[in-house]
Amino acid sequence: MSTPGIARPTPFTDYHRALGAKFVEFAGFELPLRYTGDLREHQCVRSAVGVFDITHMGEYHVSGPGAGEFIHRMVTNDVLGMQVGQAIYTAMCRPDGGIVDDLLVYRLPERWMMVVNGATNAKDWAWLREQVPAGVELRDISEEMALLAVQGPKAELALRGHVPDAALELGFYRLMEGAAFGAPAIISRTGYTGEDGFELYFAPRHAAQVWEGLMAAGRPHGLEPVGLAARDSLRLEMGYMLYGNDIDDTTTPLEAGIGWTVKLKKDAFNGREALLRQKEAGLARKLVGFELDGRRVARHDMTIESGGRAVGRVTSGTFSPSLERPIGMGYVESALDRPGGILEVLAGGTRLNVRIAPRPFWTRGSRRS
């Protein structure tokens, strides 16, 4: 895990510097914010293929008798129903239903892997360590992993011949172990952009061969490195949440619109009783998507009003390069969640009209179902 107050490099930092990246500190790491420009990088992922350095993510191995049951109890989704080679998206909640983190669970032969947000790595680790039972081995392997995401409609072309053919035939939210550019790796097909794509997990000592091999193989297909700024606009076009902005310990999966990850019929899990009560009582607020006319963007933490009355707050906002208009998300009173409904956002001394819109905003991506 990272040392507080010290921005750490990733195994690819020297490559980012050589490409002229502008850096920002995020989750304790020094990460590329942009290389050539946010718009170009965003459009590269939508039209060709981009590579993201996401080594800041945290990874835990869980093994031993009862490992699956332990994870099943810690998260809201159905882990025990997973097959080897499958991944699921899920929330991990506190007893009051507040979200500790949203994460991925991978089912590997003889072990499980949890992939958590970099910004919550220390918190997640402490939370899990508090509750791990005897006989279950929980190991933080974040320091043993470098991680690249290859995203875009030409992602498969960029990897062809450099990963097993079977990896290119994986369905969405499936994974396998195999060589990537000659390095032992876990190869998964998920993503945070709405486009087709893969994640490559491998030991940091292989960083040079994988990065250089990927850049060379992807160049004929338009592959370019992409920074955090474009990653944010890509994920927001899909209505995907960013922990710390759109969800946190004070929000529940039901309020955030990811109730499909909450299996209330399964055996006891953290937050089950609170979420049952919330569902039965009805939600007081919901996370909604909205669009604006013009080019003015609604920013995080701006107040949302209806008829001059505060009814919520903006959680995320950006200008959508794909849709060529501002978009955003925020929590509002549930009764106001009406498609096409008009609300106002206070932007300094200006009131911006916002129109409730369904998520995802971008519906023409290349992601496999």
Average pLDDT, all residues: 97
In helices, the fraction of residues equals: 10-25%
Strand order of the largest sheet: 10-11-12-9-3-13
Shape: globular
Q: Please, what is the CATH homologous superfamily of the largest domain? A: Probable tRNA modification gtpase trme, domain 1
Short description:
With 369 residues, this protein is of the alpha+beta class. The chain has helices at residues 13-18, 38-47, 67-74, 121-131, 155-159, 165-168, 207-218, 228-237, 253-256, 272-281; strands spanning 22-26, 29-34, 50-53, 58-63, 87-93, 99-108, 111-116, 137-140, 146-151, 175-180, 183-188, 197-202, 224-225, 285-291, 303-306, 309-320, 325-333, 342-347, 350-357. The protein folds into 3 domains: 13-54 and 145-236, Gyrase A, domain 2 (2-Layer Sandwich); 56-141 and 252-281, 2-Layer Sandwich (Alpha-Beta Plaits); 284-369, Beta Barrel (Elongation Factor Tu (Ef-tu), domain 3).
